[in-house]
Amino acid sequence: QNGRSFRHSPSHFEQTLKLCMAAIATTLMRVRQDIDMLTKRLTWTSAMSSQAEHHILLRDDELPALHELCLPAMPNDSLRGDDRGGEAVPHKRMSNRRTCALLLGEVMGTGILSLPFAASRLGWGFALGSCVGFALCANYSGRLLARIRNDSFPTAESYTDVARLTCGPVFGGVTRVAICLNWSLLLPYYMLASTDALHVCVGTWLPGWGQADLSLLVVLMLLLPCQLRGFTQISSLCAPSSAAILLAIAIALLDFSLQPSSPHSAPMASAEPPAEVSGPPAMRLSSYGHLASSYGHLASFIFAYQGQSMFLEMMSEMREPAEFSRVLDLAYSLMCSAYLLTVTVAFGMQGGAVASFLPDGMAEGPLKRLVGGCVLFHVLVAYVITGQPLYRYITSSLSPATLDKVSLTGRAHWLAITCAYLTFGYLVTNTLPFFAEVQELVGALSGAPIIFAWPAYFYCASCYQRASSLRATMKMIGVVDIALCALFLLVFTPIFTIFGTMGALRAFLPK
C-alpha cells in the first residue's frame, strides 16, 4: 500500500526519508557519547560521505534543514574531547596567521640569545652555515610531518599517534615517553631563562633577592597563563611575544653597535677566548680544543630551530591543515633572517667576549632592563606553549572525562597538574643555574632526534603502509626524499646526538 502511494506522491517518500535520517541522527548522537574522539571523527567522515552520495534525493531548498538536523549528531570541528554536561574548550579555529605566530613563539625561544656565544666558539663559516643549513633541515622535517598528516593520517594529532599508526602501540608508548621527557626538560629550561631575564630586568632594584626568590616570582607569573588549555587560546599571546623578542634583540644589537669596545662584557670574558687552530680563519673550529665541544655548540643551533614535536598538535587545531607548509616557509624564513642578523652583529661587535646570555653583554641602564622585560615576556609565553601538550597528556591519563570540559572539576584538575610542574621547575631552576650549558645539553639530547629521526622515519613508514611493495614505496617516496631521509636517519641523528651530548656534558659536569 505504501509503495503505491509513493508512486503517486513522491513527497510522501521524501517525508519518510527525512524521518529515517532523523532517527539515524538521534542514534548517532547517543553512540557518540560512548566512543573516543578518533572513532567519532571517522564516523563523521563516513556519515558526510553517505549524505554526499544520496543528497540528490532531496530538493536544494531542503539541504540546509537536513544539515541542521544531522549536525548535532556529529563531532563539532570547533570542539574536542568529551563535552557532555558542559561547555568544551574551543579547537580547530586557528588561522594561518595565528599558526605562524604560535610557531614563532614556540620555536624562536631563548635559543637565539645564545647563538652569538656558540658562533664565537665555532667561527664565522660554521656559524653562518649552521644558521642557514639547520633552518632548511627543520623546514624540510616540518614538511614531512605535514605530508604525513595530510596524506596518510589525517586524524593524527601527535608524534604518539603517528608512531602507533605506523608501528603499533609499543612504539607509540616509547615515543610518548620520549616526547614527554623532552617537554619535561624544556619547562625547567624556560623557567631558568625566565629567572635570568627577570634578574636583568629588576636585579638592580632588588639587590638582596637571590635566584630562589626570583624563581618564585616567575612561578607566580606563570600560574595564571598556564590555565589556558588550547593552542587556539594561547595563540593570542604569540604575536606580542614574537614582537617582544625581536624588539629586545634590536635594542641589544643597537647597544652593541654604539659600544666602541666590550667593557660591559668583562665579567663574561673570564671564559678565555678560544684558541685558534690551523685552517682558514672563517672555518676554524675553536671550542676548548676538542671536537666534541664543537658539536656541542652546534647543538645550540639545533635547539634554536627545535619545535617539531608540537607541529602535529598545531595542525590539528588549524582551520586548514593543508596550508601548514606555507606557514612553515614564512616562519622559518623569518627565524633564519633574525638569527643571521643577531649572530652577525653581536659576534661581529663583541667577538670572543660575547656573553652566553646576550643581554648580559649590554651596558647597565634602562635599555638593558627593557630588554630583560621583553625577553621575560617572550620566555613566559614559550613556557605556556610548551607546557600545554604535556599538561594535556597528563590530564588525559589521569582524568580523561574532564580533559576539555570547562567546569569547576576540569579547571581544578588542570590547576593541580600545572602547579605540580611549576614546583618541579622551581626545584630544577635552583639546582642547574647554567644557562648556556643546559641549552646545549637539552638541544643535543632531544633536538636532533626530534628534528631529524622521527619525521624521516614516520614519512618512510607511512609511505610503506600506503604502497603495495617495497619497490612501490621507493617510487612513492622519490629519489630526493630517499636521500634526504637517509641523511637524516643515518648521519645527522647519530652525529649530532652523540657528539653534541658529549660536548655539552664536557662543559657542564665540571661546573
* Unreliable residue runs: 1-8, 40-86, 262-289
Overall geometry comes to: globular
User: Total number of helical segments?
Assistant: 19
Portion of residues within helices:
over 70%
**Series of secondary-structure elements, N-terminal to C-terminal:** HHHHHHHHHHHHHHHHHHH
Percent of residues in β-strands: under 5%
Number of strands: 0
Structural overview:
- By secondary structure, the chain is mainly α.
- It has helices spanning 2-8, 10-32, 37-54, 63-70, 96-107, 115-122, 124-152, 159-167, 169-202, 211-223, 231-258, 291-304, 311-316, 324-350, 366-398, 408-429, 435-466, 470-477, 479-508.
- Helix 6 crosses helix 14, helix 7 runs parallel beside helix 17 and helix 9 (169-202) crosses helix 10 (211-223).
- The radius of gyration is 26 Å and the shape is globular.
In short:
This protein is mainly α and 511 residues long.
List keywords for this structure.
globular; 19 helices; mainly alpha; disordered N terminus; 511 residues
Set out the fold topology.
Elements: H1 2-8, H2 10-32, H3 37-54, H4 63-70, H5 96-107, H6 115-122, H7 124-152, H8 159-167, H9 169-202, H10 211-223, H11 231-258, H12 291-304, H13 311-316, H14 324-350, H15 366-398, H16 408-429, H17 435-466, H18 470-477, H19 479-508
